[in-house]
Specification:
GO terms for molecular function: diphthine-ammonia ligase activity. It catalyses: diphthine-[translation elongation factor 2] + NH4(+) + ATP = diphthamide-[translation elongation factor 2] + AMP + diphosphate + H(+). The structure is a single chain. The protein is of the alpha/beta class. The strands form six sheets. A six-stranded parallel sheet has the order 5-4-1-2-3-10, with helices on both faces. Helix 11 (about 360-365) links the parallel strand 13 (about 345-355) and strand 14. Helix 4 (about 90-105) crosses helix 5 (about 120-130), helix 10 (about 320-340) runs parallel beside helix 11 and helix 15 (about 545-560) packs across helix 16. The model is unreliable at about 275-295 and about 475-495 (pLDDT under 50).
Length: about 650
């Protein structure tokens, strides 16, 4: 990609340019923001480093790349973590600056920034990139700071300290010192005080005077002044004010060959009203007016966290295309959320099922008309997108399942930048959503994070990369396992004779379950062709009823063993193989009948006086307990949680 690099003069913004080159990108322009007054070294900015800005003008000559500069007129008006367009905010100066760069160089498709640990800065750069249709490149994001500092120095970053503001750093001693010279001392401060060795906590700032990208010349600082901002005895604050400097040529012709007019001053005002937001919302409203017959809905009965599913009933001939089908199910889902007193910001997770993954881009285009950052100020939901045989099952070309919470306590991880840390989102969703102790992970591919290319060594390599990308951790209290086992011993003597089933050893082979801290119960029930034979149903036409009753029986038994009830159900997903040769309508009816029968037979307190548990059917080409054995015809996933 052709990249415009955001440069503050610091080591990070210069080194990320080197990483861009390493990953095959091309730096075609530089962009910098500076104070209105040249004599001012530092602004009270949450966003920009400006110390040393007097020297940045030389970067254009050093790299022979055009430099676009804008004076910062705004201030930090919108100080919440997630940024929304705010008139007169300093972030809007960046929008104006990059808009002009894009206008003059239309081939630019990406923006690089040196963000390492600041979500505040990263999210604002990503917000601007999103508005301008650009890709954010942040290859230093979440890298180990000790290793990163060593890597920068080893790869030729020549930088000096231009600001210090931490215990152990003295303006009179350390300003102007070379970064390589300071490295051992910075590591010592980390050991003594827990300081950030790359200065991510504001401990220090740097100015790059030379690096491998400076092919024409290096910067030589001749004279400077030390300006003391705070004489604090523990952590004094001071900055370096450059007074004179010159360029030292790297070869005899380098400076003479530079093109005239490499530096551009960007004027103009920022946007005063969020026009793009209004336009996006209007488009969503237009879509909501679209109506469609044959929409089917289901909703679990749990009140604080529940799921809503929406799919199209009827033959595949009624489908007019993925966009139209997805608009229909999203419209109906949005309508149901509003009827329940919720909206998209209450959604934790979305399962998006489509009939053809080659239409992924079209699905995203439709999806963002409904689920937007403006509608989800606490963060867009996490999502998985899966190709399923929907058309073969007569379910149209799109199917949606959403997990909803009745509060706003969720926390999200939403990184849009391409980095070396983890894959960026390839759609309008968050990588992970944390809600009440449960981490809902977005779907993962075996993508190499910095290149965003699939691993090409085969399926095993892709799987290993996908698992490396997410690294989820589940914490369980030490005594929870003992409590669960004790509870199971106390309860498994109960009567599970519904429909005449008596406990047999092979029954448990069908069930995988995990209870966490006595509060969460996850059950996976697998019915293979071999299990169907063991059920001994002589009448073929009644075999499906026998299987569904057996599924409901085992699910109910598992809940009862661990003192859960159907009222605790957050979601029940029933995957069925299309090889079963049964219509969705028939399968839905037999499961619905089985639950009604269970409700009639169950003692008070198991199902109680609530409605029958709600489920959704998901067609699959095959399922199994291993890649070598895909002979499951029905797989049930039950997630239950006590309030």
């Amino acid at each position: 990609m052709k990249v415009v690099a955001l440069v503050s003069g610091g080591k990070d913004s210069c080194y990320v340019m080197m990483k861009c080159i390493q990953y095959g990108h091309e730096i075609v322009a530089l962009a910098n923001l500076l104070p209105v007054d040249d004599s001012v070294d530092e602004l009270d900015s949450y966003m920009y480093q400006t110390v040393g800005h007097q020297i940045i003008v030389s970067y254009a000559e050093c790299m022979n790349v055009p430099l676009f500069r804008r004076r910062i007129r705004g201030s930090s008006r919108h100080q919440k973590l997630s940024y929304q367009m705010t008139p007169d905010d300093e972030v809007e100066d960046l929008f104006v600056l990059l808009s002009e760069v894009k206008r003059q160089i239309p081939s630019i498709t990406a923006v690089s920034s040196g963000a390492i640990a600041s979500d505040y800065q990263r999210l604002r750069v990503e917000s601007i990139c999103s508005r301008l249709g650009l890709v954010s490149l942040a290859f230093l994001w979440k890298q180990d700071q000790t290793l990163l500092l060593q890597e920068m120095i080893a790869n030729g970053i020549k930088a000096i300290l231009v600001k210090v503001a931490a215990i152990g750093l003295d303006p009179s001693k350390h300003l102007g010192k070379d970064l390589a010279f300071m490295e051992p001392y910075l590591l010592k401060l980390k050991e003594l005080y827990g300081s950030n060795v790359c200065g991510e906590g504001g401990e220090y700032e740097t100015l790059t005077l030379d690096c491998p990208l400076f092919t024409n010349a290096r910067i030589v600082l001749d004279e400077f002044q030390v300006v003391l901002h705070s004489p604090d005895s523990i952590a004094p604050v001071g900055v370096l004010h450059p007074t004179t400097f010159h360029l030292e040529k790297k070869d005899s012709n380098s400076l003479e060959e530079k093109e005239p007019g490499l530096v551009f001053e960007v004027q103009g005002d920022g946007p005063n009203t969020p026009e793009s937001t209004h336009q996006r919302d209007n488009r969503a409203v237009d879509v909501v007016e679209h109506t469609r017959n044959g929409v089917h809905l289901s909703k679990t009965g749990k009140e604080n966290t529940f799921s809503i599913c929406c799919w199209l009933e009827g033959s595949s001939e009624s489908s007019t295309g993925l966009k139209e089908d997805l608009e229909s199910v999203l419209k109906e889902t949005e309508s149901q959320l509003l009827k329940q007193g919720f909206n998209w910001q209450n959604v934790l997770y979305i399962h998006l099922y489509i009939s053809d993954m080659s239409e992924f881009a079209a699905a995203n285009e439709t999806y963002v008309k409904f689920i937007t950052h403006e509608k989800c100020p606490f963060g867009v939901p996490s999502r998985s997108t899966i190709e399923l045989p929907l058309v073969e099952a007569g379910l149209g070309k799109a199917y949606v399942e959403v997990l909803v919470a009745n509060d706003q306590s969720k926390r999200i991880l939403h990184v849009q930048s391409i980095s070396s840390w983890a894959p960026s989102c390839i759609g309008p969703y968050s990588q992970a959503t944390l809600h009440k102790g449960v981490l809902h992970m977005a779907g993962q591919l075996g993508l190499d994070p910095p290149t965003m290319n699939l691993r090409n060594e085969g399926a095993v390599a892709e799987l290993n990369q996908a698992l490396t990308n997410i690294k989820p951790v589940l914490y369980v209290e030490e005594d929870s396992e003992t409590e669960d086992e004790t509870r199971q011993e106390q309860l498994c003597e109960g009567d599970y004779g519904c429909w005449g089933y008596k406990p047999e050893e092979w029954h448990q082979d069908c069930v995988q379950k995990r209870v966490v801290d006595g509060k969460i119960c996850v059950t996976v029930l697998s019915i293979s062709t071999e299990v169907m034979k063991k059920l001994h149903e002589p009448k073929e036409e009644q075999q499906l009823e026998r299987v569904t009753r057996f599924c409901v029986h085992l699910l109910n038994k598992t809940l009862y063993e661990y003192s859960f009830s159907w009222n605790d159900t957050t979601s029940l997903r029933i995957h069925f193989s299309t090889s079963l040769g049964v219509s969705v309508k028939r399968l839905f009816n037999v499961f619905e009948t089985a639950f009604k029968e269970l409700n009639e037979m169950s003692p008070e307190g198991i199902v109680g006086d609530s409605k029958e548990p709600t489920f959704n059917l998901v067609p699959v080409l095959g399922a199994g307990n291993s890649s070598a054995s895909l002979d499951n015809i029905i797989t049930c996933e039950l997630f239950s949680r006590r309030s």
